[in-house]
Amino acid sequence: MLDTVQADARAFGLETADKSLLIVDDDRPFLQRLGRALEQRGFDVTTAESVSEGMTAVKRSAPAFAIVDMRLGDGNGLDVVQALRDARDDARAVVLTGYGNIATAVTAVKLGAMDYIAKPADADEVIAALTRNPDERPEPPENPMSADRVRWEHIQRIYELCDRNVSETARRLSMHRRTLQRILAKRAPR
Prior knowledge:
Blueprint: H1 2-11, E1 20-24, H2 28-40, E2 44-48, H3 51-60, E3 65-69, E4 71-72, E5 75-76, H4 78-87, E6 92-97, H5 102-110, E7 113-118, H6 123-131, H7 147-161, H8 166-172, H9 177-185
Parallel strand pairs: 1-2, 1-3, 3-6, 6-7
Antiparallel strand pairs: 4-5
Helix pairs in contact: 3-4, 7-8
């Protein structure tokens, strides 16, 4: 079993002795699933469910790698990325988010994140981002979202940010309330 874990780690370019990894996410099932998957691939995983827990983990022992959710219940995950970069120059971090936009992606990279990945992300995608050469460009997605799907995702994010209040969501999107209700009643486009 140990040989297969080491072989998987080598396949992803993890030849370094320090495979310490911090995962910060407030979605407990996702956190546990990702943590188990990365442990099976040779990482020494520590988990945290908030910015404060993540900051404490970084202060206790700054890991070589980190996977941090952008939006957490008690603040912004970029604070954890910044603390990690301050504590350890060679640390590699990836920011995960369900609320992607260009401004936050640029900020994440400026703070030292290796990549910015939209949820849901699988373990192989995260490892590839963590171990990628900083000068190497990621491949474009094989199946990018359609324009209709991107629009639908945006509406769903705003709807969730408004605590599922249709009137407030319609106001923020400059959309008629009935139009929004029809969109919300439909299935997600492909």
